[in-house]
Amino acid sequence: MSENLLEIKDLSIEFRTYDGVVKAINHMSFDVPKGKTVGLVGETGAGKTTTALSVMGLVPNPPGVITSGSILFEGTDLLKLNESAMCQYRGKKIGMIFQNPMTSLNPVYTVGHQISDVIKQHQNVDQKEAWKRAGDMLEIVGIPRERLTNYPHEFSGGMKQRVCIAMGLSCNPQLLIADEPTTALDVTIQAQILELMKGLKEKYKTSTIFITHALGVVAEIADYVVVVYAGCVIEKGTIQEVFEQPSHPYTQGLFGCLPDIESEESAMLHVIRGSMPDPMDLPAGCKFCPRCDKAMDICRTTDPKDMSIGGEHTVKCHLYGKEELV
């Protein structure tokens, strides 16, 4: 049996609007090994959240259309399941912490009602047992069970995020998707949430897709890194491989934007010029070419293939010798 819990292969997603076709995801492929955390890194609009929604079967259709690829969960292609079959995976086997804890909770229901509702839906238990388990989940994330009867507005931002984590883990899923769970929080609370998630990962051996903008967060929590740009995976590998040898010019640029706190000399930070291309008008060839300081003629006309540069480390760039499709 494969050591990968989830395998995304050649996934492409479009949003067909009145203004044109938005090519949100373009032939994306990566794996999530069992019991490991994969950090999905990229700037706003790169396609990280759309990828997560596709795994959950929540890409809105219309206008969203999955035009190619497969999403294999323990060998089952989720894209071939109908809504009824997908409900057996969503929430039960695959949990998700959505992007903004301030708006992810329903303001007119208590947090206990919302967590127990998820448990009743997927665990086939009565209200009393679901309520007890909801209290257990709150205590696991560091909130007293007495707070079950409180409403979301009675919690701070960090506490709301803990509630969202409790909800995502309430059915003990095999895969947890955390969509920028620390973005709206201050640095101190971010650190607490990261420590909490690391502890829960060790306790439950849950595989995780951790979506973030921040390389520092990835270094803290991930085992593998997948760098996404304009809906494409441009570099991926273990945390050690990518952090010790960032190879794609975009990945190098991201690391160049980070200040070196150990350096005694002040220096200008690197700037990646320009912005991501319009997904309705993507350039031919390499999608990063218009912003790349190392661009060659071939970059403007031919889309690079995945290149293996050792171990599990691959990069999508013409700079790396003879191309071999991985």
TrEMBL record:
Q: What is its main location?
A: membrane
Topology class, membrane? Peripheral membrane protein
InterPro entries, A to Z: AAA+_ATPase (IPR003593), ABC_Ni/Peptide_Import (IPR050388), ABC_transporter-like_ATP-bd (IPR003439), ABC_transporter-like_CS (IPR017871), Oligopep_ABC_C (IPR013563), P-loop_NTPase (IPR027417)
Q: Which residues form the ABC transporter domain?
A: 6-255
What the entry lists under SUPFAM superfamilies is as follows: P-loop containing nucleoside triphosphate hydrolases (SSF52540)
| UniProt subcellular location | Cell membrane
Instruction: Please list the GO biological process terms of this entry.
Output: peptide transport
* Keywords for the protein's UniProt record, in alphabetical order: ATP-binding, Cell membrane, Membrane, Nucleotide-binding, Transport
- Cite a GO CC annotation: plasma membrane
A Pfam family annotated for this chain is: ABC_tran
Molecular function in Gene Ontology: ATP binding; ATP hydrolysis activity
Question: Which family would the database say this protein is a member of?
Answer: Belongs to the ABC transporter superfamily.
Question: Which protein is depicted?
Answer: Oligopeptide/dipeptide ABC transporter, ATP-binding protein domain
Source organism of the structure: Enterocloster bolteae 90B8
